Amino acid sequence: MDHVESPPMKLYVGIWIGLLCIPGVEVFLTYRGFSTHALLALLLILAFIEAGIALLYFMHLKYDRPILLWSFVLSVLFVLLMMNQLWPDAYRMVSLGLR
Amino acid sequence: MIESAATLAHGPGAVMEPSPYGVQSKKLTMWLFIASDAVTFGAILFGYSYLRAGTPEWPQPFHFSPSILNGMVMTAVLLTSSLTMLGAVAAAKAGRKAQCMQWLGATIFLGAVFAALHLREWFHMFDEGWALARNPTGGPVMFGATFFSITGLHLLHVLSGIIALIVIAIGYKTSWLDEGHVETTGLYWHFVDLVWMFVFPLVYLMNAAR
Question: What ipTM does this complex have?
Answer without folding.
Answer: 0.89
